[in-house]
Amino acid sequence: MNFLDRYVSQTEFKDYDDLVKNYRVNTPDNFNFGRDIVDEYAKLDPNKTALVWCNDTGEEHIFSFKDVSESSNRIANALYKAGIRKGDSVLVMLMSRYEYWFTVVALHKLGAIAIPATAQLTYKDIIYRCNFADVKAIVCVTAKGVAEYVKEALPKCPSVKLVLTIGKTEFSKDFYEFYKDAPADKTVFEIDNKTSDRMLAYFTSGTTGMPKMVSHDYSYPLAHMLTAFCWHNCKDGGLHFTAADTGWAKASWGKIYGEWISGCAVFAYDYYGRYTPLDLLPLLEKYKVTSLCAPPTMYRFLIKEDLTKFDLSAIEHYTTAGEALNPEVYKQIMDKLGKPIYEGFGQTETVLCLGTFPFMTPHPGSMGRPSPLYEIVLLDENSKPVERGKEGEICMKKRDGQIGLLVGYVTENGGIRSVWQDGYYHTGDVAYMDDDGFCWFVGRDDDIIKSSGYRIGPFEVESALMEHPAVLECAITAVPDDVRGQVIKATVVLARNYFPSEELKKELQEHVKHTTAPYKYPRIVEFVERLPKTISDKIRRVEIRENDKK
Description:
Layout: H1 4-7, H2 16-22, H3 33-44, E1 49-55, E2 60-64, H4 65-81, E3 89-93, H5 99-110, E4 113-116, H6 123-133, E5 135-141, H7 146-153, E6 162-166, E7 173-174, H8 175-179, E8 198-203, E9 213-217, H9 220-232, E10 239-242, H10 250-254, H11 257-261, E11 265-270, H12 281-287, E12 291-293, H13 296-302, E13 317-320, H14 327-337, E14 341-345, E15 354-355, E16 366-370, E17 376-379, E18 391-397, E19 408-410, E20 416-417, E21 420-421, E22 424-433, E23 439-444, E24 449-451, E25 454-456, H15 458-466, E26 471-481, E27 485-494, H16 502-515, E28 524-527, H17 541-549
Parallel strand pairs: 1-11, 3-4, 3-5, 5-6, 6-7, 10-11, 10-12, 12-13, 13-14, 27-28
Antiparallel strand pairs: 1-2, 8-9, 9-19, 14-15, 15-16, 16-23, 17-18, 18-22, 19-20, 21-22, 22-23, 24-25, 26-27
Helix pairs in contact: 3-4, 3-5, 4-5, 6-7
Protein backbone atom coordinates (compact mmCIF):
# COMPACT_ATOMS: atom_id res chain seq x y z
CA MET A 1 0.00 0.00 0.00
CA ASN A 2 0.95 3.66 -0.36
CA PHE A 3 -0.60 7.05 0.30
CA LEU A 4 -0.22 8.69 -3.09
CA ASP A 5 -3.94 8.60 -3.80
CA ARG A 6 -4.59 10.63 -0.67
CA TYR A 7 -2.44 13.54 -1.77
CA VAL A 8 -2.16 13.65 -5.57
CA SER A 9 -4.88 13.96 -8.16
CA GLN A 10 -3.34 11.40 -10.52
CA THR A 11 -0.53 8.84 -10.22
CA GLU A 12 0.05 7.64 -13.80
CA PHE A 13 0.93 9.82 -16.76
CA LYS A 14 1.26 8.94 -20.41
CA ASP A 15 3.48 11.88 -21.35
CA TYR A 16 4.83 15.23 -20.21
CA ASP A 17 1.76 17.19 -21.30
CA ASP A 18 -0.41 14.85 -19.23
CA LEU A 19 1.84 15.45 -16.21
CA VAL A 20 1.73 19.24 -16.49
CA LYS A 21 -2.00 19.31 -17.06
CA ASN A 22 -3.10 16.84 -14.40
CA TYR A 23 -0.51 16.68 -11.61
CA ARG A 24 -2.02 18.39 -8.59
CA VAL A 25 -1.16 18.03 -4.91
CA ASN A 26 -3.97 17.97 -2.37
CA THR A 27 -2.39 19.85 0.52
CA PRO A 28 -4.29 19.59 3.84
CA ASP A 29 -4.32 22.54 6.22
CA ASN A 30 -2.87 20.35 8.97
CA PHE A 31 -0.34 17.83 7.66
CA ASN A 32 2.36 16.16 9.73
CA PHE A 33 4.58 13.58 8.02
CA GLY A 34 5.23 11.75 11.29
CA ARG A 35 1.58 11.27 12.17
CA ASP A 36 -0.07 11.19 8.75
CA ILE A 37 2.42 8.94 6.96
CA VAL A 38 4.61 6.98 9.39
CA ASP A 39 1.95 6.37 12.06
CA GLU A 40 -0.69 5.61 9.43
CA TYR A 41 1.49 2.91 7.87
CA ALA A 42 2.14 1.52 11.36
CA LYS A 43 -1.61 1.29 11.90
CA LEU A 44 -2.68 -0.06 8.50
CA ASP A 45 0.35 -2.10 7.36
CA PRO A 46 2.69 -2.34 10.38
CA ASN A 47 5.13 -4.84 8.88
CA LYS A 48 5.69 -2.87 5.69
CA THR A 49 9.43 -2.27 5.20
CA ALA A 50 10.52 1.34 5.69
CA LEU A 51 14.32 1.16 5.95
CA VAL A 52 16.98 -1.34 4.89
CA TRP A 53 20.20 -0.36 6.64
CA CYS A 54 23.77 -1.58 6.74
CA ASN A 55 27.21 -0.21 7.52
CA ASP A 56 30.82 -0.77 6.57
CA THR A 57 31.45 -3.17 9.47
CA GLY A 58 28.85 -5.70 8.34
CA GLU A 59 25.92 -4.73 10.58
CA GLU A 60 22.50 -4.74 8.99
CA HIS A 61 18.93 -4.04 10.12
CA ILE A 62 15.55 -3.96 8.41
CA PHE A 63 13.00 -1.67 10.03
CA SER A 64 9.24 -1.69 9.50
CA PHE A 65 7.01 1.36 9.74
CA LYS A 66 5.87 0.06 13.11
CA ASP A 67 9.50 0.15 14.26
CA VAL A 68 9.93 3.74 13.05
CA SER A 69 6.60 4.81 14.56
CA GLU A 70 7.34 3.37 17.98
CA SER A 71 10.95 4.56 18.17
CA SER A 72 10.00 8.07 17.06
CA ASN A 73 7.19 8.17 19.64
CA ARG A 74 9.62 7.29 22.41
CA ILE A 75 12.19 9.87 21.29
CA ALA A 76 9.53 12.58 20.90
CA ASN A 77 8.10 11.84 24.34
CA ALA A 78 11.52 11.99 25.97
CA LEU A 79 12.41 15.23 24.22
CA TYR A 80 9.12 16.76 25.32
CA LYS A 81 9.79 15.71 28.92
CA ALA A 82 13.24 17.32 28.63
CA GLY A 83 11.67 20.63 27.62
CA ILE A 84 11.93 20.64 23.82
CA ARG A 85 8.84 22.29 22.38
CA LYS A 86 7.18 23.20 19.11
CA GLY A 87 9.36 25.65 17.18
CA ASP A 88 12.59 24.76 18.98
CA SER A 89 15.57 24.07 16.73
CA VAL A 90 17.43 20.75 17.06
CA LEU A 91 20.73 20.08 15.27
CA VAL A 92 20.95 16.48 13.98
CA MET A 93 24.39 15.07 13.10
CA LEU A 94 23.81 11.34 12.74
CA MET A 95 25.51 10.55 9.42
CA SER A 96 23.51 7.66 7.89
CA ARG A 97 22.85 5.82 11.14
CA TYR A 98 19.31 4.48 11.37
CA GLU A 99 18.71 6.70 14.41
CA TYR A 100 18.55 9.60 11.97
CA TRP A 101 15.20 8.44 10.63
CA PHE A 102 13.79 7.83 14.11
CA THR A 103 14.96 11.24 15.33
CA VAL A 104 13.76 13.33 12.39
CA VAL A 105 10.31 11.73 12.46
CA ALA A 106 10.18 12.34 16.23
CA LEU A 107 11.00 16.03 15.72
CA HIS A 108 8.25 16.32 13.12
CA LYS A 109 5.73 14.83 15.55
CA LEU A 110 6.92 17.18 18.26
CA GLY A 111 6.74 20.25 16.05
CA ALA A 112 10.40 21.05 16.61
CA ILE A 113 12.52 22.28 13.71
CA ALA A 114 14.98 19.62 12.54
CA ILE A 115 18.31 20.94 11.25
CA PRO A 116 20.21 18.04 9.63
CA ALA A 117 23.95 18.62 9.39
CA THR A 118 26.91 16.71 8.07
CA ALA A 119 29.45 15.07 10.36
CA GLN A 120 32.15 17.01 8.48
CA LEU A 121 31.40 20.21 10.36
CA THR A 122 34.17 21.67 12.52
CA TYR A 123 33.56 23.24 15.92
CA LYS A 124 33.41 26.70 14.28
CA ASP A 125 30.68 25.47 11.93
CA ILE A 126 28.75 24.09 14.89
CA ILE A 127 29.06 27.35 16.82
CA TYR A 128 27.84 29.31 13.78
CA ARG A 129 24.80 27.08 13.26
CA CYS A 130 23.83 26.84 16.92
CA ASN A 131 23.96 30.57 17.52
CA PHE A 132 22.36 31.54 14.22
CA ALA A 133 19.45 29.09 14.65
CA ASP A 134 19.14 29.37 18.45
CA VAL A 135 19.59 25.60 18.69
CA LYS A 136 18.15 24.06 21.87
CA ALA A 137 19.44 20.49 21.47
CA ILE A 138 22.02 18.50 19.54
CA VAL A 139 21.73 14.83 18.58
CA CYS A 140 24.98 13.43 17.18
CA VAL A 141 27.31 10.51 16.68
CA THR A 142 30.56 10.18 18.60
CA ALA A 143 32.49 8.95 15.54
CA LYS A 144 34.72 10.98 13.21
CA GLY A 145 35.52 13.52 15.91
CA VAL A 146 31.96 14.88 15.94
CA ALA A 147 31.56 14.59 19.73
CA GLU A 148 34.88 16.34 20.30
CA TYR A 149 33.88 19.24 18.08
CA VAL A 150 30.50 19.51 19.81
CA LYS A 151 32.18 19.50 23.23
CA GLU A 152 34.60 22.22 22.10
CA ALA A 153 31.75 24.30 20.69
CA LEU A 154 29.35 24.10 23.65
CA PRO A 155 30.86 26.88 25.81
CA LYS A 156 30.14 29.29 22.95
CA CYS A 157 26.61 27.93 22.28
CA PRO A 158 24.53 29.27 25.21
CA SER A 159 21.18 28.27 23.69
CA VAL A 160 22.01 24.53 23.72
CA LYS A 161 20.44 22.86 26.77
CA LEU A 162 20.63 19.19 25.78
CA VAL A 163 23.14 17.01 23.94
CA LEU A 164 22.40 13.39 23.01
CA THR A 165 25.11 11.13 21.60
CA ILE A 166 25.15 7.62 20.18
CA GLY A 167 27.47 6.36 22.89
CA LYS A 168 28.39 7.75 26.26
CA THR A 169 30.51 10.84 26.86
CA GLU A 170 31.16 12.94 29.94
CA PHE A 171 29.33 15.98 28.53
CA SER A 172 26.20 14.39 26.99
CA LYS A 173 23.36 11.99 27.63
CA ASP A 174 23.39 8.58 26.01
CA PHE A 175 20.79 8.52 23.23
CA TYR A 176 19.28 5.16 24.18
CA GLU A 177 19.39 5.72 27.94
CA PHE A 178 17.63 9.04 27.37
CA TYR A 179 14.43 7.56 25.96
CA LYS A 180 14.44 3.93 27.18
CA ASP A 181 11.51 4.43 29.59
CA ALA A 182 9.41 6.64 27.33
CA PRO A 183 6.13 5.20 25.99
CA ALA A 184 6.15 3.83 22.43
CA ASP A 185 2.46 3.35 21.65
CA LYS A 186 1.56 7.05 21.47
CA THR A 187 2.81 10.56 22.09
CA VAL A 188 2.02 11.98 25.52
CA PHE A 189 1.58 15.52 24.23
CA GLU A 190 -0.77 17.20 21.78
CA ILE A 191 0.75 19.30 19.01
CA ASP A 192 -1.56 21.01 16.56
CA ASN A 193 0.69 22.06 13.72
CA LYS A 194 -0.42 23.79 10.56
CA THR A 195 1.01 22.71 7.23
CA SER A 196 2.41 26.22 6.90
CA ASP A 197 4.45 25.90 10.12
CA ARG A 198 8.23 25.59 9.87
CA MET A 199 9.36 21.94 9.97
CA LEU A 200 12.90 21.65 8.64
CA ALA A 201 15.91 23.83 7.96
CA TYR A 202 19.15 23.37 6.08
CA PHE A 203 22.26 25.47 5.92
CA THR A 204 23.37 25.78 2.31
CA SER A 205 26.67 24.19 1.34
CA GLY A 206 28.39 27.54 1.02
CA THR A 207 29.83 27.51 -2.51
CA THR A 208 30.11 31.28 -2.04
CA GLY A 209 29.99 33.25 1.21
CA MET A 210 28.58 32.13 4.56
CA PRO A 211 25.95 29.38 4.52
CA LYS A 212 22.35 30.61 4.44
CA MET A 213 19.67 28.98 6.60
CA VAL A 214 16.87 27.66 4.38
CA SER A 215 13.49 27.07 6.00
CA HIS A 216 10.86 24.58 4.76
CA ASP A 217 7.35 23.99 6.10
CA TYR A 218 5.26 20.84 6.62
CA SER A 219 4.16 20.76 2.97
CA TYR A 220 7.75 19.97 1.94
CA PRO A 221 7.33 16.16 2.15
CA LEU A 222 4.24 16.36 -0.06
CA ALA A 223 6.16 18.34 -2.67
CA HIS A 224 8.70 15.50 -2.80
CA MET A 225 6.10 13.04 -4.05
CA LEU A 226 6.93 14.38 -7.50
CA THR A 227 10.64 13.81 -6.84
CA ALA A 228 10.06 10.22 -5.76
CA PHE A 229 7.41 8.56 -7.85
CA CYS A 230 7.53 10.83 -10.91
CA TRP A 231 11.30 11.21 -11.25
CA HIS A 232 13.06 8.53 -9.16
CA ASN A 233 10.33 6.17 -10.41
CA CYS A 234 9.90 4.76 -6.89
CA LYS A 235 7.44 1.90 -6.78
CA ASP A 236 5.31 0.55 -3.97
CA GLY A 237 7.36 -2.30 -2.48
CA GLY A 238 10.57 -1.14 -4.16
CA LEU A 239 13.90 -0.21 -2.58
CA HIS A 240 15.38 3.16 -3.45
CA PHE A 241 18.91 4.39 -2.78
CA THR A 242 20.03 7.99 -3.02
CA ALA A 243 23.76 8.42 -2.46
CA ALA A 244 23.71 11.33 -0.05
CA ASP A 245 24.79 12.25 3.44
CA THR A 246 21.79 12.89 5.70
CA GLY A 247 23.30 16.26 6.53
CA TRP A 248 22.35 17.85 3.22
CA ALA A 249 19.10 18.39 1.38
CA LYS A 250 19.56 15.64 -1.21
CA ALA A 251 18.78 13.18 1.60
CA SER A 252 15.32 14.73 1.88
CA TRP A 253 14.94 14.29 -1.87
CA GLY A 254 15.69 10.58 -1.83
CA LYS A 255 15.96 9.09 1.63
CA ILE A 256 12.63 9.63 3.37
CA TYR A 257 9.68 11.79 2.35
CA GLY A 258 8.49 11.11 -1.18
CA GLU A 259 9.79 7.54 -1.09
CA TRP A 260 7.79 6.58 1.99
CA ILE A 261 4.62 8.30 0.79
CA SER A 262 5.03 6.28 -2.43
CA GLY A 263 5.27 3.03 -0.43
CA CYS A 264 8.91 2.53 -1.38
CA ALA A 265 11.48 1.42 1.20
CA VAL A 266 14.74 3.34 1.59
CA PHE A 267 18.22 1.78 1.50
CA ALA A 268 20.91 3.37 3.66
CA TYR A 269 24.63 2.69 3.97
CA ASP A 270 26.55 4.12 6.90
CA TYR A 271 30.32 4.24 6.60
CA TYR A 272 33.11 5.40 8.87
CA GLY A 273 36.23 4.69 6.82
CA ARG A 274 37.30 6.26 3.54
CA TYR A 275 34.38 5.99 1.16
CA THR A 276 34.55 5.26 -2.56
CA PRO A 277 31.65 4.71 -4.95
CA LEU A 278 32.93 1.20 -5.61
CA ASP A 279 32.08 0.24 -2.03
CA LEU A 280 28.42 0.50 -2.96
CA LEU A 281 28.34 -1.85 -5.93
CA PRO A 282 28.32 -5.12 -3.93
CA LEU A 283 25.58 -3.66 -1.70
CA LEU A 284 23.39 -2.63 -4.63
CA GLU A 285 23.72 -6.19 -5.88
CA LYS A 286 23.14 -7.88 -2.50
CA TYR A 287 20.06 -5.92 -1.43
CA LYS A 288 18.58 -5.69 -4.93
CA VAL A 289 18.09 -1.94 -4.96
CA THR A 290 15.45 -1.11 -7.57
CA SER A 291 16.17 2.58 -8.23
CA LEU A 292 19.34 4.61 -7.78
CA CYS A 293 20.08 8.32 -7.62
CA ALA A 294 23.73 9.31 -7.50
CA PRO A 295 25.62 12.55 -8.11
CA PRO A 296 27.53 12.95 -11.37
CA THR A 297 30.74 12.48 -9.38
CA MET A 298 29.81 8.88 -8.62
CA TYR A 299 28.89 8.09 -12.22
CA ARG A 300 32.18 9.63 -13.36
CA PHE A 301 34.03 7.18 -11.15
CA LEU A 302 31.89 4.20 -12.11
CA ILE A 303 32.47 4.49 -15.85
CA LYS A 304 36.18 3.93 -15.25
CA GLU A 305 35.47 0.52 -13.65
CA ASP A 306 34.49 -2.94 -14.88
CA LEU A 307 30.79 -2.96 -14.04
CA THR A 308 30.33 -6.45 -15.49
CA LYS A 309 31.64 -7.85 -12.18
CA PHE A 310 28.38 -6.87 -10.49
CA ASP A 311 24.78 -7.91 -11.07
CA LEU A 312 22.87 -4.63 -11.11
CA SER A 313 19.89 -6.02 -13.01
CA ALA A 314 17.47 -5.20 -10.17
CA ILE A 315 18.03 -1.48 -10.74
CA GLU A 316 15.26 -0.36 -13.05
CA HIS A 317 15.89 3.37 -13.00
CA TYR A 318 18.91 5.69 -12.69
CA THR A 319 18.74 9.39 -11.85
CA THR A 320 21.21 12.17 -11.07
CA ALA A 321 21.22 15.73 -9.75
CA GLY A 322 23.49 18.08 -7.83
CA GLU A 323 25.52 19.12 -10.84
CA ALA A 324 24.99 18.83 -14.56
CA LEU A 325 25.79 15.42 -16.06
CA ASN A 326 28.37 15.39 -18.85
CA PRO A 327 26.98 13.74 -22.01
CA GLU A 328 30.03 11.46 -22.24
CA VAL A 329 29.26 10.03 -18.78
CA TYR A 330 25.65 9.43 -19.85
CA LYS A 331 26.82 7.66 -23.00
CA GLN A 332 29.22 5.34 -21.19
CA ILE A 333 26.70 4.40 -18.48
CA MET A 334 24.23 3.62 -21.26
CA ASP A 335 26.84 1.46 -22.98
CA LYS A 336 27.86 -0.37 -19.80
CA LEU A 337 24.51 -0.82 -18.06
CA GLY A 338 22.03 -0.57 -20.91
CA LYS A 339 19.87 1.99 -19.11
CA PRO A 340 19.68 5.77 -19.40
CA ILE A 341 20.27 8.26 -16.61
CA TYR A 342 17.36 10.63 -15.99
CA GLU A 343 18.72 14.01 -15.00
CA GLY A 344 17.05 16.57 -12.74
CA PHE A 345 17.72 19.97 -11.25
CA GLY A 346 16.87 21.58 -7.95
CA GLN A 347 18.39 23.27 -4.93
CA THR A 348 18.41 23.13 -1.14
CA GLU A 349 15.70 25.78 -1.45
CA THR A 350 13.44 23.66 -3.69
CA VAL A 351 12.34 20.20 -4.66
CA LEU A 352 12.68 18.98 -8.26
CA CYS A 353 12.47 22.06 -10.53
CA LEU A 354 13.43 20.49 -13.87
CA GLY A 355 13.41 16.82 -14.65
CA THR A 356 13.61 14.10 -17.25
CA PHE A 357 10.70 11.89 -16.29
CA PRO A 358 10.41 8.12 -16.94
CA PHE A 359 7.95 8.56 -19.81
CA MET A 360 10.37 10.94 -21.60
CA THR A 361 13.36 10.14 -23.79
CA PRO A 362 16.42 11.71 -22.13
CA HIS A 363 18.37 14.31 -24.05
CA PRO A 364 21.91 13.57 -22.82
CA GLY A 365 23.28 16.61 -21.00
CA SER A 366 19.88 18.23 -20.53
CA MET A 367 18.33 18.75 -17.10
CA GLY A 368 14.90 18.01 -18.54
CA ARG A 369 11.69 20.00 -18.63
CA PRO A 370 9.98 22.17 -15.97
CA SER A 371 8.30 20.50 -13.02
CA PRO A 372 4.52 20.99 -12.80
CA LEU A 373 5.06 22.35 -9.27
CA TYR A 374 6.74 25.50 -10.59
CA GLU A 375 6.28 28.07 -13.33
CA ILE A 376 9.84 28.18 -14.67
CA VAL A 377 11.01 31.26 -16.54
CA LEU A 378 14.50 32.06 -17.88
CA LEU A 379 15.30 35.73 -17.27
CA ASP A 380 18.02 38.01 -18.64
CA GLU A 381 20.07 40.54 -16.65
CA ASN A 382 17.12 42.97 -16.79
CA SER A 383 14.68 40.35 -15.42
CA LYS A 384 13.02 39.95 -18.83
CA PRO A 385 12.13 36.51 -20.25
CA VAL A 386 14.57 35.33 -22.92
CA GLU A 387 13.74 33.67 -26.23
CA ARG A 388 14.19 29.95 -26.85
CA GLY A 389 17.86 29.13 -27.34
CA LYS A 390 19.04 32.20 -25.39
CA GLU A 391 20.77 31.97 -22.01
CA GLY A 392 18.93 33.14 -18.93
CA GLU A 393 18.78 32.65 -15.18
CA ILE A 394 16.44 29.88 -14.03
CA CYS A 395 13.68 31.58 -12.03
CA MET A 396 10.30 30.61 -10.56
CA LYS A 397 7.32 32.90 -10.92
CA LYS A 398 5.33 33.44 -7.75
CA ARG A 399 1.92 31.80 -7.65
CA ASP A 400 -0.75 31.02 -5.07
CA GLY A 401 -0.62 27.75 -3.17
CA GLN A 402 3.06 27.20 -3.98
CA ILE A 403 4.64 24.20 -2.24
CA GLY A 404 8.16 22.82 -2.48
CA LEU A 405 9.84 26.21 -2.37
CA LEU A 406 11.48 27.46 0.81
CA VAL A 407 9.45 29.59 3.20
CA GLY A 408 12.38 31.98 3.15
CA TYR A 409 15.89 32.53 4.50
CA VAL A 410 16.10 32.68 8.27
CA THR A 411 17.65 35.88 9.62
CA GLU A 412 19.90 36.17 12.67
CA ASN A 413 17.01 37.34 14.85
CA GLY A 414 14.91 34.31 13.86
CA GLY A 415 12.75 36.10 11.32
CA ILE A 416 12.18 35.11 7.69
CA ARG A 417 13.62 37.02 4.75
CA SER A 418 11.49 36.74 1.63
CA VAL A 419 13.04 35.19 -1.47
CA TRP A 420 10.81 37.01 -3.94
CA GLN A 421 12.25 39.72 -6.20
CA ASP A 422 9.59 41.39 -8.34
CA GLY A 423 7.52 38.22 -8.18
CA TYR A 424 10.34 35.77 -8.98
CA TYR A 425 12.62 33.45 -7.04
CA HIS A 426 16.10 33.58 -8.60
CA THR A 427 18.17 30.37 -8.50
CA GLY A 428 21.45 31.91 -9.65
CA ASP A 429 21.85 29.13 -12.24
CA VAL A 430 22.03 29.92 -15.96
CA ALA A 431 20.54 27.72 -18.67
CA TYR A 432 18.89 27.87 -22.08
CA MET A 433 15.75 26.14 -23.34
CA ASP A 434 15.71 24.42 -26.71
CA ASP A 435 12.79 24.22 -29.14
CA ASP A 436 11.55 21.00 -27.49
CA GLY A 437 11.31 22.65 -24.08
CA PHE A 438 14.38 20.93 -22.61
CA CYS A 439 16.69 23.04 -20.45
CA TRP A 440 20.48 22.88 -20.74
CA PHE A 441 22.75 23.94 -17.92
CA VAL A 442 25.35 26.63 -18.66
CA GLY A 443 26.73 27.34 -15.18
CA ARG A 444 26.26 29.29 -11.99
CA ASP A 445 25.81 32.96 -12.78
CA ASP A 446 29.05 33.76 -10.91
CA ASP A 447 30.92 30.95 -12.74
CA ILE A 448 30.25 32.29 -16.26
CA ILE A 449 33.53 33.23 -17.97
CA LYS A 450 33.79 36.39 -20.07
CA SER A 451 36.77 36.16 -22.41
CA SER A 452 37.46 38.36 -25.44
CA GLY A 453 33.78 39.32 -25.66
CA TYR A 454 32.51 35.73 -25.39
CA ARG A 455 30.33 34.36 -22.56
CA ILE A 456 31.53 30.83 -21.84
CA GLY A 457 29.74 28.40 -19.53
CA PRO A 458 32.14 26.07 -17.68
CA PHE A 459 29.94 23.03 -18.14
CA GLU A 460 30.39 22.85 -21.93
CA VAL A 461 34.18 22.91 -21.64
CA GLU A 462 34.13 20.40 -18.80
CA SER A 463 31.97 18.08 -20.91
CA ALA A 464 34.44 18.30 -23.76
CA LEU A 465 37.33 17.41 -21.45
CA MET A 466 35.38 14.51 -19.94
CA GLU A 467 35.34 12.83 -23.35
CA HIS A 468 39.10 12.33 -23.11
CA PRO A 469 39.99 9.01 -21.45
CA ALA A 470 42.69 10.63 -19.31
CA VAL A 471 40.20 12.82 -17.45
CA LEU A 472 38.46 11.51 -14.34
CA GLU A 473 37.14 14.86 -13.12
CA CYS A 474 37.71 18.48 -14.03
CA ALA A 475 36.66 22.03 -13.22
CA ILE A 476 36.72 25.03 -15.52
CA THR A 477 37.33 28.47 -14.02
CA ALA A 478 38.45 31.92 -15.14
CA VAL A 479 41.83 33.55 -14.54
CA PRO A 480 42.15 37.35 -14.99
CA ASP A 481 44.00 38.40 -18.14
CA ASP A 482 45.07 41.92 -19.17
CA VAL A 483 44.28 41.35 -22.86
CA ARG A 484 41.25 39.04 -22.89
CA GLY A 485 39.70 40.04 -19.58
CA GLN A 486 39.64 36.40 -18.51
CA VAL A 487 41.17 33.19 -19.82
CA ILE A 488 39.98 29.65 -19.24
CA LYS A 489 41.71 27.39 -16.77
CA ALA A 490 41.16 23.61 -16.47
CA THR A 491 41.85 21.92 -13.15
CA VAL A 492 42.07 18.21 -13.91
CA VAL A 493 42.05 14.99 -11.90
CA LEU A 494 43.57 12.23 -14.04
CA ALA A 495 42.17 8.74 -14.47
CA ARG A 496 44.12 5.70 -13.35
CA ASN A 497 47.36 5.03 -15.28
CA TYR A 498 47.60 8.60 -16.63
CA PHE A 499 50.29 10.97 -15.37
CA PRO A 500 50.85 14.75 -15.58
CA SER A 501 53.05 16.00 -18.42
CA GLU A 502 53.37 18.95 -20.77
CA GLU A 503 52.52 16.63 -23.65
CA LEU A 504 49.24 15.63 -21.97
CA LYS A 505 48.37 19.29 -21.34
CA LYS A 506 48.73 20.05 -25.05
CA GLU A 507 46.77 16.94 -25.95
CA LEU A 508 43.87 18.00 -23.74
CA GLN A 509 43.94 21.52 -25.16
CA GLU A 510 43.84 20.20 -28.72
CA HIS A 511 41.05 17.80 -27.76
CA VAL A 512 38.86 20.68 -26.54
CA LYS A 513 39.62 22.74 -29.67
CA HIS A 514 38.32 19.92 -31.84
CA THR A 515 35.36 19.01 -29.61
CA THR A 516 33.85 22.46 -29.09
CA ALA A 517 34.47 25.98 -30.36
CA PRO A 518 38.26 26.58 -30.49
CA TYR A 519 38.06 29.82 -28.47
CA LYS A 520 36.77 27.77 -25.50
CA TYR A 521 39.93 25.73 -25.02
CA PRO A 522 41.72 26.07 -21.65
CA ARG A 523 44.87 28.13 -22.01
CA ILE A 524 45.91 26.98 -18.53
CA VAL A 525 45.83 23.32 -17.41
CA GLU A 526 46.63 22.25 -13.86
CA PHE A 527 46.73 18.63 -12.69
CA VAL A 528 45.60 17.94 -9.11
CA GLU A 529 44.93 14.84 -7.00
CA ARG A 530 41.42 15.96 -6.07
CA LEU A 531 39.05 18.86 -6.63
CA PRO A 532 37.84 21.06 -3.76
CA LYS A 533 34.22 20.22 -3.01
CA THR A 534 31.44 21.25 -0.69
CA ILE A 535 30.10 18.91 1.98
CA SER A 536 27.44 17.94 -0.57
CA ASP A 537 30.11 16.90 -3.09
CA LYS A 538 29.71 19.86 -5.44
CA ILE A 539 32.85 21.30 -7.00
CA ARG A 540 33.92 24.56 -5.30
CA ARG A 541 35.09 26.55 -8.30
CA VAL A 542 35.18 29.63 -6.06
CA GLU A 543 37.95 27.99 -4.01
CA ILE A 544 39.98 27.33 -7.15
CA ARG A 545 39.56 30.97 -8.17
CA GLU A 546 40.56 32.19 -4.70
CA ASN A 547 43.66 29.98 -4.66
CA ASP A 548 44.69 31.36 -8.04
CA LYS A 549 44.74 34.88 -6.56
CA LYS A 550 47.23 33.94 -3.85
